[in-house]
Amino acid sequence: MPATTENNNQGSFLGRISIRRNQVLSMDGTHDQEMEDLELFQKHVGDRFSDLLSSTTDDPSSDALLSIAWLRKLLDEFLCCEAEFKAVVMMGREPSQIAKPPLDKLLPELLDRLVKSLDICNAVALGIDALKNIQRLAEVAVAALDQAPIGEGQVRRAKKALSSLVTTMVQEDKDPSKGTERTRSFGKRSSNTTNQAKSAFRSLSWTMAKNWSSAKQIHAMSSNLNAPRGAESSGLAQPVYIMSTVLVFVMWTLVAAVPCQDRNGLGTHVGLPRQLSWAHPMIGLQEKIAEEWKKKEKKGCVGVLEEMQRLDKLGQSLIEFADSFQFPAETERLEEVKAQVEELGDICRKMDEGLEPLQQQIREVFHRAVRTRTEFLLVLDQAGKLAAPST
Amino acid sequence: MENNLAENSGNVAAYDTGHTPHSPKPEPTDPKPDGGGTAEGEPSPPPSETLHEGDQANQEKKNETVKESPPPNHEKLAEDIDQLFLTLREDNDKSKGNAEKLEIPRFVERYLHMVEEKIIKYDSGEGKAKWGEVEEEDSWLLENADRITKLMKLLTNHHCEIEEERRNSLVNRTGSIQQRVMSYLEEDFRIIMEESRIIPTELDPGGNNNNADPKGKHVASSEKQEDVQDPDREQTESQPSFPGYPEEAIASLRKIATEMLSGGYESECCQVYIISRRNVFEEILQKLGLERISIDEMVQKVPWETLARDMIPAWINTFKECAAVFFPGERKLAEAIFADNPSVSEGLFSSLSRGVVIQLLNFAEGAAMTKRAGEKLFKLLDMYETLRDVIPKLDGMFPEESVEELKTEMTLAKSRLGESAIAIFCDLENSIKSETAKTAVPGGAVHPLTRYIMNYLAIAGDYKETLEQVFREHSKIERPDSTGMPRQENGASASDKEAASPFSTQAMRVMDLLDASLEGKARLYKEVALSNFFMMNNGRYILQKIKSSSEMSQVMGDNWCRKKSSELRTYHKNYQRETWNRVLASLNHEGLTVNGKVQKPVVKERFKSFNAMFDEIHRTQSTWVVKDEQLQSELRVSISTVVIPAYRAFLGRFAQILDPGRQTEKYVKYQPEDIETHIDELFEGKPHQGVGKRKT
């Protein structure tokens, strides 16, 4: 579902809500309308994520789970959820309505999660920078091997780039903020490339603050995240809880997919409510992603991003090819390599087309979070002012 | 086209010391000075195999003895190759698309062999000389990189007529040599990037502050003494010297980059460049004291004092330095090194600077998100001003490719800071409203709230221009329409003819609220006189603060000042009336004479009454407080001018009625001079003191 139609839908939805609320607010029928709005919001959230879930399974040509294109879709849906959320909870409402219990506690908690999500956005954006460097290495390999005949020089060039690529991915995955030491374990280097490799790994991207951990941040975001009970579950506490859950889930997914500083302990699930239907597609996605993550941890640290996994596989295989290469290469093997190089080129193209927009989207999420927080603070502020006895 | 470009760049980069194949001046070995000919692409007859084998044998022997300079036939081979390219190019020019018969002469293999041998020597134990140590070696590498690249292009050219097997073998060999040569160039490029930089200039881009962090500089420079010698001199000659590469280093980098790019090794070159420069920026930011900090930490943990004292000034400084020195310097560096490929240099610079800018902006966003508090306003405005001043300069600072995004990002961050500033300033209202203490300030003194608000506004005056701008540009953003509060402009500014600016409207509202709050506090006093005295005292303080800031008096306007002054006069009058009218009434001459005869008991009574009232006033009002000396003396004078003449007249007229001696002593407690002295003791905020005690 392209974002544009989403936006149209969303536009009319928002319009409806605000009009209705303006008409109805003063009358007593507010309650029913509100129930309807809340249900609609829940339904939409469920639909959005079930689209994301089905697009990963049904059609093999569509974007694979955790691919760059899929992440972009995920962020599109997130932005839509967020806009609807604001429409439901904030638009046309008296400030006092959202400043009373239980929102007086739940809303600040959500705002705190929004602040924490900003750092995640930044860390993910840095991870995308690192991916751009990885893309450049893959491009070198493609340029070198996409030749006929493939000569020794090209093979050496490709191997150098691919070794860097594979090492870098492990590096970025473990902890982009430190470590020249790790490169030493990749021994097969002639004396003159060692230095180069070392310096190349010093840091492929900017890093976050020392000791900052994406996994810890996710955990901090998901603590206190409890489904509203009893009477609360039918009121505004519900959308606030849904939004918090969506936020935490999306951030968790991003951190799992893109190289991020210190992801130790990310495997633990974010608690999602099994009893609530809107959460089911999200639970489905979470299980799939967690599975990938587990595989990754077992295999020894390769990114969960679909493109990274493929790069890793292709990289390993082509390095093997390079190691046994003798000029002229056997025709049979060349066919295989040609296919692999094509696939590599395909991934490079996807990265080239997708990483920049993804990074911009992340930035948009960042700005949106800042803005939403500001808007809510303003409303809470006004509620506070109204409540305070004025002189 | 591509060939031409490569050859031109080769011309600039590689042949500046040696032969120039394109040079118009005839070479002795040039077989075709007129450029014509049908020599079938072969500039010189291939030397016989035997001769060359002999040469090679010779060469190998020589290699064992003389390590440095290549034997003469190397030069010959290189010349032959250059000549080959020259001829091919000319042929190409002539026959346009019809260049079918390109043949690859046999000496190409011998040439490749020669280069291979050299590379093998590099690979062997002794390795290659460090760049810059042996000039001939450097230019050998560059020149042959160029030849190899051209050869590679020639061999993969479809017009080139050559049997498949030989072509494949030649392509493989040439490609292999090219890869090795490029690896060496890449390594040299990296080493020059990292080691020829002069560290001290980073800390001190303007060169004004030579004592900054001497330790850091010393350690850094002692590692590379040779490099530091020249550049140091250079630095003193031409000032802003970031990024601190000596001319020769930049020239070398440019030559290497040119060869790597024309050889198709752009990615490798860019990777080395960008990593090296990013590390430099990491160092710079660190040295400028810009700590990396997460937004979460900024908002939740770090005490504001730390932000205000260290981090924000470091941020402001870093931002300014980046805009003034580091970014322009960085751009120049990229342009100098990738002179032949503007798109590459722009891409590299954009990517680097974007990383730095976004990092800086994240800090600004974080600062704007910290919990609102009055004391934060001015730091946030400092940051706001920094961004505001840089934004208009962005167009010249960044390439088109990235300037729009950066402008948008900076403008957003600026808006956040502006909105925060507005919110904080508007919070003054709350701090006034929430000051609800029910105890009156002793002595009718200036209320702490008055002091706080007025001092705040006085500083705000220093930021008037910025605050005006902030209120103008950002007060409408971020207010969801439906929750917008009714914010009517009260009558306060209605009298001003010009439409008041949003900032002065807000300042006016703060003043009105303060006035209202003070009136409430004035009611806490039981005595009407003290109530008025309190209002006069605070009003005076307010007016003085406004008047002493030319900016704030502009903001408040003349009307406000006039209105305030007249209020003050009213309070003064009220005070005077409440306190002194009764006193003056006791000195009234009326009712003392009945039928022209002075009533002695009444006179006694009047004196007694005056003394009692005056004592009481002195006792209480010397504990009242006026810190403002001018106001204090004005008050005393205004009291004196009313009371003393009246007393003098009363005394002059009625004192004589009393019997001299004990009676006079009893009733005439004060001489006019005493009255003056006592009035001068009023409003000093002294603890209670009986007049009588003082007299004794």
TrEMBL record, chain A:
Pfam families linked to this entry: ROH1-like (PF05633)
Region of interest (Disordered), residue spans: 169-196
Native species: Clitoria ternatea (Butterfly pea)
Protein family per UniProt: Belongs to the ROH1 family.
Name of the protein in question: Protein BYPASS-related
Residue ranges with Basic and acidic residues bias: 171-184
Record's keyword terms, sorted: Membrane, Transmembrane, Transmembrane helix
Residue ranges that the Swiss-Prot or TrEMBL entry lists as coiled coil: none
UniProt entry tagged with the keyword Membrane: yes
GO cellular component: membrane
Membrane topology: Single-pass membrane protein
Subcellular location per the Swiss-Prot or TrEMBL entry: Membrane
UniProtKB/TrEMBL annotation, chain B:
Upper classification of the organism: Eukaryota, Viridiplantae, Streptophyta, Embryophyta, Tracheophyta
Gene Ontology MF: a single term: phosphatidylinositol-4,5-bisphosphate binding
Family named by the database record: Belongs to the EXO70 family.
Annotated function: Component of the exocyst complex.
Domain spans labelled Exocyst complex subunit Exo70 C-terminal: 314-681
Single Gene Ontology BP annotation: exocytosis
InterPro entries, per the entry: Cullin_repeat-like_dom_sf, Exo70, Exo70_C
Gene Ontology cellular-component terms listed: exocyst
Composition skew (Basic and acidic residues), residue ranges: 24-33, 50-75, 214-236
Superkingdom of the source species: Eukaryota
Keywords per UniProt: Exocytosis, Protein transport, Transport
Residue ranges with Polar residues bias: 1-11
Organism whose genome encodes this protein: Clitoria ternatea (Butterfly pea)
Region span, Disordered: 1-75, 200-245, 475-501
Official protein name in the record: Exocyst subunit Exo70 family protein
